[in-house]
Design a protein that fits this description.
139 residues; Glyas_Bleomycin-R_OHBP_Dase; 2,3-Dihydroxybiphenyl 1,2-Dioxygenase, domain 1; metal-binding; binds ligand LP2KCY5N; binds cobalt (II) ion; alpha+beta; single chain
Length: 139
């Protein structure tokens, strides 16, 4: 696989509304999207645009959320994952598995409407990595 652009940094938060205010008031964030629910991924989401990437605020959608355990350990929230673009997610998964990395589950449709998959943080030096397939030619 070939490592692509940093698409977003995922930030877990107990309150998207409060985090929006923090980024707006402390950092001057202006391009703040409308929060939306992504029940299939167990999260509520809000994107903040920066000049070269996005911050993805994620709040649990319900108790079964994949970020519930992270927030139990980090009640104030924190940096949760980084997302890199790849041209072909199935090729990336096959390559990672061949190299012995743990790929978490099957590809699913993420917040940008394209397939995503996660690599276990224990195989990535403690960083949860999301891979996101970009539309053909947009990589
Ligand atoms: C908005 C949609 C989408 C997008 O389009 O962008 C998203 O980004 S969705 C984001 C949320 N979804 C996910 O994170 C799915 C993938 N995650 C998982 O499968 C699990 O969260 C996990 C990574 C396997 C962790 O499992 P979990 O049961 O939640 O936690 P544990 O407490 O058992 O963790 C085991 C181990 O890993 C460490 N850990 C957990 N999360 C992270 C993290 N985000 N970054 C770094 N390390 C993490 C955790 O501390 C444990 O370590 P030890 O304590 O040393 O055992
Ligand atoms: Co993400």
């Amino acid at each position: 696989m070939t490592l692509g652009r940093l698409n977003h940094v995922g930030v877990a938060t107990p309150s998207i509304a409060k985090s929006i205010e923090t980024y707006r008031i402390l950092l001057g964030a202006a391009a703040i999207g409308e929060p939306f629910d992504l029940p299939a991924q167990g999260v509520k989401v809000c994107f903040i645009d920066t000049p070269n990437t996005q911050i993805e605020l994620i709040e649990p959608y319900d108790d079964a959320s994949p970020i519930a355990s992270f927030l139990a350990k980090n009640p104030a929230g924190g940096q949760h994952h980084v997302c890199f673009e790849v041209a072909d997610i199935h090729a990336a998964i096959a390559d990672l598995k061949a190299k012995g990395a743990r790929v978490l589950g099957e590809p699913r449709i993420g917040a940008h409407g394209t397939p995503i998959v996660f690599v276990h943080p224990k195989d990535m030096g403690g960083v949860l990595v999301e891979l996101m397939e970009t539309p053909h030619g947009d990589h």
